[in-house]
């Protein structure tokens, strides 16, 4: 720990609703089963905005250092850690740690662990220069990796990859990605393309249409121009039956209701986005006779993480991102509130 400074710069949420305050804080010391990662870059996720606003029905730590897409270098480790070395590249994800011994952890559903630690929500996250992560859960990043480029994959990539797996869609079938022009959606389109799945991008505006088509979408539906979103999505599929699955990344409630109408019979609606206070609603009769399945999908486990990062390492996915300084985080949140972000913002913790 001799080369690690005692102080660092961070963006700290001091009270519910924010804003973030850029200030000097102590550098944490890793526990026996933890590593300390010198965060070089961290993606900014819509969940980070929820954490600042405290609008989810889950207690949030205050004061809080947000962020959960941090990529950097291991600079210290606890005495029980022997499978990751000082100098290795590592990523700190939403799932910072779990007990590893409950029924869920034993069955590779670590995200459902009742003692799960959540980066940038229940424990301090990655909008700081040095962050703590449980060694068992930090992502192993190959040496030579572009840390800015891989940062968004650590949440957005892993999350949508897991959702596609949960959907059970096979190569040659079709998925509608709602919110396809955002950080998660742009990666979901690329995973679909790499897996041989047709993807319909659903979002609003010409900029997002251009982005979606460049990311591998086979079709696009602009909800701001559509007079009947249900018919328009179905019209983009073979025989007009609708997509085999819908991946919902939307940050408002209405798309969750629409998806139940246009998904194909025996199709699956996968809910990933979590609009505050939103509910799922669908006609019982129609759901039964069309045999529609609703599926929640949370973040991926350690194996999902390994697989999702492998797609990146092989050059099959690339997150569209823009780098800004950590000092500009509040400006990123303002753009997020306006729905003015195409792709992902990544903060450089040195600026």
UniProtKB/TrEMBL annotation:
Cofactor needs: Zn(2+)
In this chain the Enoyl reductase (ER) domain maps to 17-347
Name used for this protein in its record: alcohol dehydrogenase
What the entry lists under PANTHER family is as follows: ALCOHOL DEHYDROGENASE 1-RELATED (PTHR42940:SF3)
Q: Which organism is it from?
A: Aplosporella prunicola CBS 121167
Answer whether the UniProt record assigns the keyword Metal-binding to this protein.
yes
Q: Which PROSITE patterns match?
A: ADH_ZINC
Question: What Gene3D superfamilies does the database record attribute to this sequence?
Answer: Medium-chain alcohol dehydrogenases, catalytic domain (3.90.180.10), NAD(P)-binding Rossmann-like Domain (3.40.50.720)
Q: Which GO terms describe its cellular component?
A: cytoplasm
Record key words, sorted: Metal-binding, NAD, Oxidoreductase, Zinc
Family designation:
Belongs to the zinc-containing alcohol dehydrogenase family.
Output the lineage of the source organism.
Eukaryota, Fungi, Dikarya, Ascomycota, Pezizomycotina
Q: What is its EC number?
A: 1.1.1.1
Pfam families listed in its UniProt record:
ADH_N (PF08240), ADH_zinc_N (PF00107)
Main EC class of this protein? oxidoreductase
Gene Ontology MF terms in the entry: alcohol dehydrogenase (NAD+) activity; zinc ion binding
Query: Matching SMART domains, A to Z?
Result: PKS_ER
């Amino acid at each position: 720990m001799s080369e690690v400074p005692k102080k660092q710069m961070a963006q700290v949420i001091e009270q519910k609703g924010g804003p973030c305050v850029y200030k000097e804080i102590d550098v944490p010391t890793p526990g026996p089963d933890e590593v300390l990662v010198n965060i070089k870059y961290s993606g900014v996720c819509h969940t980070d905005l929820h954490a600042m606003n405290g609008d989810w029905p889950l207690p949030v730590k205050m004061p809080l250092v947000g962020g959960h897409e941090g990529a950097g270098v291991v600079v210290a480790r606890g005495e029980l850690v022997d499978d990751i070395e000082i100098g290795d590249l590592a990523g700190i994800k939403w799932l910072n740690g779990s007990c590893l011994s409950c029924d869920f952890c034993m069955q590779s559903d670590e995200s459902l662990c009742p003692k799960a630690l959540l980066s940038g929500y229940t424990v301090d996250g990655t909008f700081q220069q040095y962050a703590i992560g449980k060694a068992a859960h930090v992502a192993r990043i190959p040496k030579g990796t572009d840390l800015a480029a891989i940062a968004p994959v650590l949440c957005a990539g892993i999350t949508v990859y897991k959702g596609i797996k949960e959907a059970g869609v096979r190569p040659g079938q079709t998925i509608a990605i709602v919110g396809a022009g955002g950080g998660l959606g742009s990666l979901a389109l690329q995973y679909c393309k790499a897996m041989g799945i047709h993807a319909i991008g659903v979002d609003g505006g010409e900029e997002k249409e251009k982005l979606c088509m460049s990311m591998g979408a086979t079709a696009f539906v602009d909800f701001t121009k559509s007079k009947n979103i249900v018919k328009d999505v179905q019209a983009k599929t073979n025989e007009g039956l609708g997509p085999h699955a819908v991946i919902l990344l939307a940050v408002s409630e209405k798309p969750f209701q629409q998806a139940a109408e246009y998904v194909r019979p025996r199709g699956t609606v996968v809910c990933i986005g979590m609009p505050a206070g939103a509910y799922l609603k669908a006609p019982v009769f129609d759901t039964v006779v069309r045999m529609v399945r609703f599926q929640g999908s949370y973040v991926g486990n350690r194996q999902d993480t390994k697989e999702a990062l492998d797609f990146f390492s092989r050059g099959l996915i690339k997150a569209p991102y823009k780098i800004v300084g950590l000092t500009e985080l509040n400006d990123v949140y303002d753009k997020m509130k306006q729905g003015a972000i195409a792709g992902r913002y990544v903060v450089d913790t040195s600026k």
